[in-house]
Specification:
The chain is an all-beta fold and 110 residues long. Helix content is 0%, strand content 54%. The chain contains no helices and nine strands.
């Protein structure tokens, strides 16, 4: 979405700027377990809209190279989690994007 900001100086001259408003995405946890070949990613969106309000909630997507995975909202509003199986080798980094414009990338700890 967009927000219009108007600034007026003491002489009455105004400047109008239209800015894009995006949510902030924070990847909280990235874990990979060798024995189970399981990757778990937990991320948060600053956009805390409850899905039952009828307002469009952010859709978070996990990106691993060219593959993408939907991240469902799990637990408290704004918390997203995905667990994926079959990763014999951990990814070097993960990126989570939001339909509201936010993005975060984290390297996987060795």
């Amino acid at each position: 979405s967009q927000l219009t900001v108007t600034a007026t100086n003491l002489n009455g001259m105004s400047t109008v700027q239209v800015v894009n408003v995006v949510d902030q995405v924070n990847i909280e946890t990235v874990t990979w377990v060798k024995g189970t070949e399981r990757l778990r990613v937990i991320a948060f969106s600053s956009d805390k809209i409850h899905p039952f309000t009828g307002i469009e909630t952010p859709v978070l997507t996990l990106h691993l190279g060219t593959a993408t995975y939907a991240m469902p909202q799990v637990g408290p509003v704004g918390r997203y989690e995905v667990v994926l199986n079959g990763f014999a080798v951990p990814p070097a980094r993960v990126t989570v994007t939001s339909s509201k414009g936010g993005v975060d990338t984290e390297a996987l700890a060795d």
